[in-house]
Write a structure and sequence with these properties.
The chain has five helices and eight strands, in the order ααββαββββααββ. By secondary structure, the chain is of the alpha+beta class. Its main location: secreted.
């Protein structure tokens, strides 16, 4: 699984690996990401104290600290969800788009996005994955849902426009 956003880098990578390519729609890409996410983990890192990731994970947070795709933190089920979400094919990295700033219900201007904003379908799959991970890692999964919904209030719709996500605190239970 490669995450390449620069077309020149992509062309170089394809030529070096002698791979053939084809267009894939969003559902096909998400299925591929999910299949890759189920691959066996080569290394589980037990001590993951990093400012950029949630404790016990290498992929959950504004950055990641994994040294390779096959490395996960001790909270493997939750970390797998975050890793899959990080590979959403439709996303805006921090600083790439302008998002509304809202305090309570008041619109108070605009700012660049501080966190990655993903396609709404990727966010839906991510939240479902966290709910399923909650059967084994309940506290971590619920904390991730809360933190994600508190920080990320928009997602990217099918038309490329920002869509306001409604926070449902009942999802935490």
């Amino acid at each position: 699984m490669f995450d390449v956003r620069d077309i020149t880098e992509l062309q170089w990578l394809v030529s070096r690996l002698a791979l053939s390519t084809r267009e894939a729609n969003l559902d096909e890409m998400l299925s591929l990401i999910e299949l890759c996410g189920m691959l066996e983990v080569s290394n589980i890192v037990r001590n993951t104290s990093n400012f950029h990731t949630y404790p016990g994970t290498l992929w959950c947070g504004p950055g990641d600290s994994a040294s390779s795709y096959s490395e996960l933190g001790a909270n493997t089920a939750v970390d797998r969800c975050c890793r899959n979400h990080d590979f959403c094919p439709v996303r805006a990295s921090p600083g790439e788009i302008t998002v509304p700033v809202v305090w309570g219900k008041e619109h108070s201007g605009e700012s660049v996005n501080l966190f990655t904003v993903s396609h709404c379908h990727c966010d839906k799959v991510f939240k479902r994955c966290l709910h399923e991970a909650g059967t084994t890692e309940r506290v971590t999964a619920r904390a991730m849902i809360f933190l994600y919904e508190a920080a990320i209030r928009q997602c990217i719709g099918d038309n490329g426009q920002l869509v306001e996500q409604h926070v449902n605190l009942w999802d935490l239970f």
